[in-house]
Amino acid sequence: MYDRLFTFWSRYISKATLFRVMFNLLPMYRRSCGRITFVSEDIHIVKIKIPLTDKNRNYVGSMFGGSLFSAIDPIYMI
């Protein structure tokens, strides 16, 4: 599904913008409250913002490590 959407929209939108928008729609980003805020044109620099909320806070009040991992891990695969 994502492959077809990517090939269709890549004719009209730059790859960097398309990566940012499509990654922000993924459930792992929506559930951990993470957002991709910036993607460079060559896709070498990606900035991610994860605010500390009740969804990703652990027992001691710091950020749950799984939220960090789920926001950063798919970037390296691209």
Automatic annotation (TrEMBL):
Name the record gives this protein: DUF4442 domain-containing protein
Highest taxon above the source species: Bacteria
